[in-house]
Design goal:
By secondary structure, this protein is an alpha+beta fold. The protein contains 2 helices and 6 strands, in the order ββββββαα. It has 2 domains: 56 residues, no CATH class; 47 residues.
């Protein structure tokens, strides 16, 4: 999980921690609500066991990447360099698997 830091702080290094009222606060006291969390497509927010707000790749997106990699692997024999194409597909599948595991560890379900 990648921690989300406070955009208001001058240093930008303060991690945001969850409060009982479902808002987040940095060490300087700046607050952020879930409505203020604006992530790129393909990412979802999560809170780790220590209460730090972060983001991970959406596990549904990771599964799509894995499925595409399997298709790429199946078609690798038709490429000019089949070994390179197969390795590239396996690297893509591994990346998708690692992102999926990171999301699951953060408690995000597909």
């Amino acid at each position: 999980m990648h921690a989300i830091t406070c955009g208001t702080c001058a240093t930008g290094t303060g991690t945001l921690r969850v409060l009982p009222n479902r808002t987040f606060v940095c060490p300087s006291g700046h607050q952020l609500t879930l409505q203020d969390v604006d992530l790129d497509d393909g990412h979802v927010w999560a809170v780790d066991a220590s209460g730090v707000l972060g983001y991970v790749v959406n596990p549904a997106f990771s599964l799509e990447v894995i499925a595409e990699a399997i298709d790429d692997l199946a078609a690798s024999g038709d490429c000019p360099d089949p070994a390179y194409a197969a390795r590239s597909a396996l690297d893509k599948a591994l990346g998708g698997c690692l992102e999926f595991v990171a999301a699951r560890r953060a408690g995000v379900v597909a």
